[in-house]
Design brief:
Layout lengths: L2 H29 L2 H12 L6 H21 L3 H33 L8 H35 L10
Helix pairs in contact: 1-3, 2-3, 3-4, 4-5
Length: 161
């Protein structure tokens, strides 16, 4: 094995470890208890209020199964496709939540004493930027997921489909 082959193999393993562990951690964080799942459901409700609970459960399952699949390289293309299907609406959720944060701040501002309004503005900007950066992160992860759908999960995959 040449140095380039060794580095390429290491790169594949680092990519799988990063993607897999990120989504396994997120699945655990979003479904670890009732409060966490309620938060997850409420996030989904900004784009699908009537079906938020089942869609939130599906999202947690997609993150968990997709993350494990990519991490182990077992049916990694299918796992990456699950992640891509999760990330597309996830991006929409963050973009919509950004708008919701701005609207909420605009609604609260007149009811606050003048001395607290700068703090509200700071919270508003922080919330909107957090959701915007999360949407951008999702787009980046979506491209990686689509790459893995196209080429598979690389060397040392358990079931390289």
């Amino acid at each position: 094995m040449t140095m380039n082959d060794t580095l390429a193999t290491a790169g594949w393993l680092v990519l799988r470890l990063g993607m897999g562990s990120l989504f396994l951690n997120a699945a655990w964080a979003c479904g670890k208890d009732r409060a966490a799942f309620r938060w997850t459901r409420d996030m989904v409700a900004v784009i699908a209020p009537r079906h938020a609970a089942p869609l939130a459960a599906a999202g947690v399952a997609m993150m968990g199964l997709g993350g494990l699949s990519v991490l182990l390289g077992g049916y990694g293309r299918i796992g990456a496709a699950l992640l891509a299907l999760f990330l597309a609406p996830g991006t929409a959720i963050h973009l919509r939540s950004r708008a919701v944060a701005g609207a909420l701040a605009a609604r609260l501002s007149p009811a606050l004493p003048a001395g607290l309004r700068p703090t509200l503005t700071e919270l508003d900007v922080s919330a909107r930027m957090a959701h915007y950066s999360s949407a951008l992160k999702n787009v980046a992860l979506l491209t990686v997921s689509l790459f893995l759908v196209a080429v598979g999960t690389g060397p040392y995959s358990l079931a390289p489909f």
